């Protein structure tokens, strides 16, 4: 029976490999709609807004704000056990009168639900004590919990950050403690909440002249109050629309809300179909979250291959299936990035910020590993590819907690040509260095704990690493030099010795070191593996470490302290693995002479006894 | 990244690995096998020419690897040092230098507090020079001109060009700044980081007589007594970087009582020493020097305590019947052409502080070339190249009252070695394509044959 299934699997492995990710993604691609008899909050997400220098749907505004406040893209009501879309939370906050405007609070005593939604994430104990909050397990607090301590919170934040109007100098961010950083962070979150409830952000009223100088609702309202009149143009209509929409929401008039929204959206669809198409794409992208599901699938793939090594009969079909599945996931991963480029209107610019660099490095790792696996069909590259893909996407996920992942670029970076060439090339250089580093880890781990590196295994893995290193050398060198040419073109100097440039140079030197040590016969397979693992420290420094430089390594405060500690921990782990690689060969399962007492080869494996190892036995002794 | 780990990985190849290696010869080996010690240990072979012996010693790949390790450290420390010092201070100390005393604070990832202890380390000139020697020696003895070596030769030629380019840049590059307010005409380029004390006497409309004291002679307790100056100057407090403010009315009485001899700016302003601008400063500011000094006339009459600062305007001083201007300022040089700033624009994305565009609209006038008010635009990623210099948009000035942009700051760079990286890039790029392409071709070819 089992054999039959194995046979069947062997024949159709490729098709199963294609089917798995497609079904997986298909589930999440299914559109979610609003309930007909409730507020159409998801449709509300289609409204356009101008926020952070970019047109985006309200859906994105809501998700980003909620992400910053509570580290989630949807609001979960723990008491009721229900989850709501972020747009509902945004509407709730918009419908709450600005709590600091005492006049408004008196007129509209109904705060709606916004005051009681536990969205403020506070994980720092000192801050919890400072604000006299009851510690709760979810680490999330409602506005009502905080409202009494807000003046105190703002006063503290002012003391730390400084306030020019009150002539307070503040503390140099270099010397902030962790608590200082968290107080400032929370104060900013509360301010953002107040700005939304005061309708100061996002900018929702278009400019009648069609430019991108949009206004927030509150500005327009003060204009109307001052002049006592309202025009008849586009912005007046939009203002009226929001005014009515929010009051329908406050008064719980579902039908009126829905029909008003439908009419307005229909009008927008007719007036600017292109813009609405882009908005719909972005909403689909938000909901689909392709990178998140790629992340899950990479875990599945790594497990599949690990399974293939344990079950020799199933080994080849499983590996083949995993390979095809990885190729399909790669396509999804890539299309995610392409949609991002479309939304940002920057074709061929894969990397615009740290977040997208993480996503792109993941993509590059998977691509390189697919190529490596095509040549050496042993499954190792699939594991390396899925592990690196998983790790980089986790990092990307952490980075997305900071808010919008598609922020506008500083003026100096506003050039598609250099972004598409230099940045892509350098990032691919990082990618190759990471792939080589993880292949080095694979060499050490597999060599030490399994028999897989006997026979050709070690040589094949090492040759694979060498190929990736050569690619890394080429990419990081060309990328670094292209960066120099950009600098020369724009600033009149090729090399400025600034931290980021130096970081890229370090990778080039490190790879050159490994290659020369190999050519000079100073290191062999194992030495290369160890050096590649240490190279991960160099690469992670160039990629991430340089961003922490301003903080100073002794200051454990600052907003970036957590990520800096994480980086140090990860680098220590790499060094530990490299150190493990230096252990004597007798401790390596793959390299120690086989002892007849413990059969090292798993049953069913067709590996012959290792003649090569026994030869060198006298030398070891 | 400690040294012990590296040596454990590199210098202890275990015999067992030699086995795997022998079974599969490395794909891209140089065919060098040079550092194998056997030839040196076999005296029975034909004795080598002493020059060749020296070259072989110099060309050892182990030296290459050691140099790579040293350069890793110097680049890494040179980055960490930028947390405390300005980037150009660090470049001069770490990279454009033969050796450097690296403070222990920097060695230990900036985790220590500042202390005076430091360790000596080879600087950029020394490491780069040694690499050059090593590389040239290797080519002299090891690489024959052959097609399959073409890639490596190209790569190494490119590396040599790039290193020479950086050498030329290091020796001859000149950087300065032009600060132009809206509606102003400027032909001066100033060099921040090169302060000087200047005494200026206007001879007529076109000519000034300038006596300047270089930065190297300005330090605490220095006495400047020079026949060219109409006074002797004793420096009380010299500040490499400083901030200033006007004295408040309520402080004035107290301040005057404490400083009865204060003159000029010292009567109205107060300056304070602040940390040097570091290389990782997000705003890329530069140091603004100030100093307090006591002047004494040639006749021995005290002239009071003065404040000189690059923050403040020139001061007038009258000695006898001659009037002078005195200032602590950045070194500046005149150009034979001038820029008139029509306007500077600074745009942000609506609703954010993120800059979208910086734009300087300039009229260029150069009488020598017969150019009269030619309109020029300088903005991000679009500098002006003129007379061998590059002028790029670097920053802007703000009006202290309205806090609005009221002028532009252009960075001015002259680099005679600018072409070399382009050549190097081409050489190395082609070289790597040839070399690694060749390796890949052989690899694929062998698989097909199998």
Quick structural overview:
Chain A is mainly alpha-helical and 621 residues long.
Characterise the protein shown here.
The complex is a heterodimer of chains A (621) and B (450). In chain A, a hairpin with a 2-residue loop joins strand 1 (48-51) and strand 2. In chain A, strands 1-2 form a two-stranded antiparallel sheet. Chain A has a two-stranded antiparallel sheet with strand order 3-4. In chain A, helix 15 packs antiparallel against helix 16 (354-375) and helix 17 (380-399) packs across helix 18. Chain A is built from 24 helices and eight strands. Chain A is mainly alpha-helical and 621 residues long. Chain B is an alpha+beta fold. The model of chain B is unreliable at 1-43 (pLDDT under 50). In chain B, helix 5 (61-80) packs antiparallel against helix 8 and helix 9 packs antiparallel against helix 12. Chain B is built from twelve helices and 18 strands. In chain B, strands 4, 5, 12, 13, 14 and 15 form a six-stranded antiparallel β-sheet that branches. A four-stranded antiparallel β-sheet of chain B has the order 3-18-17-16, with no helix packed on it. Chain B is globular and about 95 Å long. The chains are: A mainly alpha (621), B alpha+beta (450). At the A-B interface, helix 19, helix 20, helix 21, helix 22 and helix 23 of A face helix 1, helix 2, helix 5, helix 6 and helix 9 of B.
């Amino acid at each position: 029976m089992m054999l039959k299934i194995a046979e069947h699997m062997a024949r159709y492995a490729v098709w199963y490999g294609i089917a798995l990710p497609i079904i997986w993604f298909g589930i999440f691609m299914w559109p979610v709609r609003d309930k007909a008899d409730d507020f159409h909050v998801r449709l509300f997400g289609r409204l356009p807004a101008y926020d952070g220098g970019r047109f985006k749907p309200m859906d994105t505004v809501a998700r980003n704000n909620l992400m910053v406040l509570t580290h989630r893209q949807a609001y979960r009501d723990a008491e009721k056990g229900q989850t709501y879309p972020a747009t509902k939370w945004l509407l709730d906050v918009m419908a709450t009168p600005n709590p600091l405007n005492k006049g408004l609070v008196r007129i509209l005593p109904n705060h709606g639900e916004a005051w009681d939604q536990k969205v403020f994430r506070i994980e720092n104990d000192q801050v919890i004590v400072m604000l006299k909050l009851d510690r709760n397990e979810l680490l999330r607090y409602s506005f009502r919990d905080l409202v009494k301590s807000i003046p105190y919170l703002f006063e503290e934040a002012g003391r730390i950050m400084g306030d020019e109007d009150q002539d307070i100098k503040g503390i140099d961010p270099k010397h902030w403690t962790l608590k200082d950083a968290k107080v400032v962070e929370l104060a900013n979150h509360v301010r953002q909440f107040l700005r939304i409830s005061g309708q100061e952000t996002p900018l929702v009223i278009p400019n009648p002249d069609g430019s991108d100088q949009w206004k927030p609702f509150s500005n327009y309202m003060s204009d109307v109050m001052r002049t006592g009149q309202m025009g008849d143009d586009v912005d007046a209509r939009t203002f009226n629309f929001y005014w009515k929409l929010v009051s329908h929401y406050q008064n719980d008039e579902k039908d009126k809300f829905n029909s008003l929204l439908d009419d307005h959206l229909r009008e927008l669809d007719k007036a600017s179909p292109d813009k609405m198409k882009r908005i719909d794409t972005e909403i689909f992208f938000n909901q689909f979250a392709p990178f998140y599901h790629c992340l899950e699938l990479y875990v599945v793939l790594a497990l599949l291959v690990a399974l293939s090594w344990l079950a020799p009969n199933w080994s080849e079909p499983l590996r083949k299936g995993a390979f095809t599945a990885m190729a399909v996931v790669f396509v999804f991963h890539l299309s995610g990035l392409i949609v991002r480029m479309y939304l940002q209107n920057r074709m061929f610019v894969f990397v615009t910020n740290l977040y997208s660099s993480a996503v792109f490095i993941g993509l590059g790792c998977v691509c390189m590993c697919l190529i490596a696996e095509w040549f050496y069909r042993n499954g190792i590259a699939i594991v390396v590819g899925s592990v690196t893909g998983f790790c980089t996407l986790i990092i990307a996920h952490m980075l997305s907690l900071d808010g919008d992942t598609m922020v506008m670029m500083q003026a100096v970076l506003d050039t598609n040509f250099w972004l598409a060439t230099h940045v892509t090339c350098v990032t691919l250089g990082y990618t190759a260095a990471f792939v080589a580093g993880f292949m080095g880890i694979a060499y050490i781990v597999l060599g030490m704990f399994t028999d897989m590196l006997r026979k050709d295994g070690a040589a094949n893995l090492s040759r694979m690493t060498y190929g990736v290193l050569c690619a890394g050398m080429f990419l990081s060198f060309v990328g670094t030099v292209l960066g120099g040419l950009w600098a020369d073109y724009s600033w009149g100097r090729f090399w400025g010795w600034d931290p980021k440039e130096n970081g890229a140079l370090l990778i080039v030197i490190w790879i050159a070191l490994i290659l020369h040590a190999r050519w000079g016969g100073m290191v062999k397979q194992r030495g290369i593996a160890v050096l590649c693992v240490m190279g991960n420290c160099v690469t992670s420094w160039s990629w991430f470490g340089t961003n922490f430089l301003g903080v100073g390594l002794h200051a454990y405060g600052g907003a970036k302290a957590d990520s800096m500690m994480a980086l140090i921990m990860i680098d220590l782990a790499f060094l530990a693995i490299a150190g493990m690689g230096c252990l004597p060969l007798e401790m390596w399962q793959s390299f120690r002479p086989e002892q007849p007492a413990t059969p090292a080869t798993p049953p069913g494996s067709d590996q012959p006894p290792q003649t090569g190892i026994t030869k060198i036995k006298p030398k070891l002794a | 990244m400690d040294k012990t780990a590296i040596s454990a990985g590199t210098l202890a190849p275990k015999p067992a690995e030699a086995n795997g290696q022998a079974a599969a010869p490395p794909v891209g080996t140089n065919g060098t096998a040079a550092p194998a010690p056997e030839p040196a240990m076999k005296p029975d072979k034909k004795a080598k020419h002493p020059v060749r012996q020296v070259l072989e010693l110099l060309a050892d790949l182990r030296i290459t690897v050691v140099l790579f390790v040293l350069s890793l450290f110097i680049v890494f420390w040179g980055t960490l040092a930028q947390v405390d010092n300005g980037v150009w201070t660090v470049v001069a100390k770490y990279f454009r230098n033969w050796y450097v005393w690296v403070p222990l604070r920097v060695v230990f990832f900036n985790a220590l507090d500042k202390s005076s202890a430091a360790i000596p380390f080879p600087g950029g000139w020394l490491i780069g020079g040694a690499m050059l020697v090593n590389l040239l020696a290797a080519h002299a003895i090891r690489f024959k001109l052959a097609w399959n070596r073409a890639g490596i030769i190209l790569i190494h030629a490119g590396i040599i060009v790039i290193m020479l380019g950086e050498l030329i840049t290091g020796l001859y590059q000149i950087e300065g700044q032009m600060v132009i307010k809206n509606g102003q005409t400027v032909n001066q380029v100033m060099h921040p980081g090169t302060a000087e004390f200047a005494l200026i006497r206007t001879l007529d409309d076109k000519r000034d007589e300038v006596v300047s004291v270089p930065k190297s002679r300005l330090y605490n307790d220095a006495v400047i007594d020079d026949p060219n100056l109409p006074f002797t100057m004793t420096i009380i407090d010299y500040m490499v970087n400083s901030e200033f403010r006007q004295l408040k009315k309520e402080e004035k009485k107290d301040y005057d009582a404490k400083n009865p001899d204060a003159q000029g700016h010292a009567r109205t302003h107060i300056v304070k020493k602040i940390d040097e601008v570091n290389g990782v400063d997000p705003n890329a500011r530069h140091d603004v020097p100030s100093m307090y000094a006591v002047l004494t006339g040639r006749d021995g009459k005290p002239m009071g305590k003065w404040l000189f600062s690059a923050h403040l305007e020139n001061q007038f001083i009258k000695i006898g019947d001659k009037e002078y201007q005195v200032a602590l300022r950045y070194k500046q040089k005149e150009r034979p052409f001038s820029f008139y700033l029509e306007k500077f624009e600074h745009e942000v994305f609506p609703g954010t502080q993120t800059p979208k565009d910086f734009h300087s609209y300039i009229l260029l006038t150069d009488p020598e070339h017969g150019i009269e008010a030619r309109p020029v635009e300088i903005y991000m990623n679009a500098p002006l190249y003129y007379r061998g210099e590059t002028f790029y948009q670097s920053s802007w000035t703000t009006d202290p009252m309205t806090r609005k942009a009221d002028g532009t700051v252009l960075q001015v760079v002259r680099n005679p070695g600018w072409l070399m990286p382009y050549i190097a890039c081409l050489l190395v790029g082609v070289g790597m394509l040839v070399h690694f392409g060749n390796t890949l071709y052989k690899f694929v070819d062998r698989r097909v044959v199998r």
